[in-house]
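User: Sequence in, structure out. Go.
Assistant: Echoing your sequence, followed by the C-alpha cells.
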Amino acid sequence: MSGIREPGFLTVIEILDGFSNKWGFSWGDMAANVFGAGMFQGQQLLWNEQRIKFKFSFHKKVMENRCLKNEQIIFLAANGTKEC
C-alpha cells in the first residue's frame, strides 16, 4: 500500500515545487521517487523484507580558490593524477 501512497504524496510536493520560483519541478526527483517506492514495494512482494538498501554519503572537501576557477585542474584531481 505504501508503494502507491508514497509516490502520490511526493508528486503533490513536486507539483507545488513547480509553482515555486525558488525550486521548480524536477523530472529527476520524480524518477527517484517512483524508483524508491518501486524498490521498496518490489522487495516486499518478492521477499517480504528489505534485502537491498541504498546508502549515500558525502565528504566535504575544501578547495583553494585557484582550483574552483580551473575546470581542468578539478578534472585532473578527480582522476588522481594531480591534486589541487
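User: And one key feature?
Assistant: The longest helix spans residues 27-47.
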